Automatic annotation (TrEMBL):
Organism: Auraticoccus monumenti
Domain of life of the organism encoding this protein: Bacteria
Pfam families on file: RibD_C
Every Bacterial bifunctional deaminase-reductase C-terminal domain range: 4-178
GO molecular function: 5-amino-6-(5-phosphoribosylamino)uracil reductase activity
Protein name in the entry: Dihydrofolate reductase
GO biological process: riboflavin biosynthetic process
Gene3D superfamilies in UniProt: Dihydrofolate Reductase, subunit A (3.40.430.10)
Length: 185
């Protein structure tokens, strides 16, 4: 059975989306981006909320950028080859291949998706991921923590949920970004 991975860039104070501005410096570095590409290469299904999907749409055409470096081209190819499921009540159509819209998040449907998949899945976007966390569907948490405190926004972990996690990996990058990977107990 496949595992569901929740992975996002996170501010030092725990926000996956800042109330104002961005989450800070770190993910734009080639070393970090190559690491992320290598980490997600085996993933063949992405579960997105509408806003995260709209952010990730960049990768549908990133391969057409003049002078795009190899790590950008490789990530774009991997993203384009993956299945994407967008959970949205407002999105009328999708702009990428291998993409479908689901109007509501159904934990049982995600359980079936995990059970029927030979490769791991990711869930991205703090609002959508909160539903999966509350339903006990997330097997692994991957945080890319910046060195910026943003003071508000949408938290990586939803309020009102207690989780017992085991730290399985850490890595610090020269940019100040710190990767931590946790598994649910």
């Amino acid at each position: 059975m496949a595992e569901l991975i929740y992975s996002m860039l996170v501010s030092l104070d725990g926000y996956a989306a800042a109330a104002e501005g961005d989450l800070g410096r770190g993910a734009e570095d080639e070393e970090v981006h190559t690491f992320i590409g290598d980490l997600f290469r085996p993933v063949r299904t992405y579960l997105y909320g509408r806003r995260m999907y709209e952010t990730m749409l960049f990768w549908e055409t990133a391969h057409t950028l003049p002078d795009a470096p190899p790590h950008i081209l490789e990530f774009a190819r991997d993203w384009q080859a993956a299945e994407k499921v967008v959970y949205s009540t407002t999105l009328e159509s999708v702009s990428s291949a291998r993409t479908r819209i689901e109007r509501s998040f159904d934990p049982d449907a995600v359980r079936r998706l995990k059970a029927g998949s030979e490769t791991d899945l990711t869930i991205d976007g703090p609002t959508l991921a909160a539903q999966a966390v509350r339903a006990g569907l997330v097997d692994e948490y991957q945080l890319f923590t910046t060195s910026t405190a943003v003071g508000g926004g949408l938290r990586f972990f939803p309020d009102g949920v207690r989780l017992e996690l085991d730290l399985v990996e850490t890595r610090a990058f020269d940019t100040g970004l710190v990767y931590t990977r946790y598994r649910t107990r």
